[in-house]
Design a protein that fits this description.
- This protein starts with a helix and ends with a helix.
- The chain is an all-alpha fold and 33 residues long.
- The protein has 3 helices and no strands.
């Protein structure tokens, strides 16, 4: 679901961040890529 969030924009991204609040740094890295 994290990958799909990047395609949708930030609507799904919020859900991914909520599901994985323990690894916020990892999410930021994917956003830069």
């Amino acid at each position: 679901q994290c990958q799909e969030a990047l395609v949708q924009g930030h609507a799904l991204r919020r859900v991914c961040r909520r599901r994985e609040p323990s690894s916020p740094q990892r999410h930021q890295g994917v956003r830069e890529q």
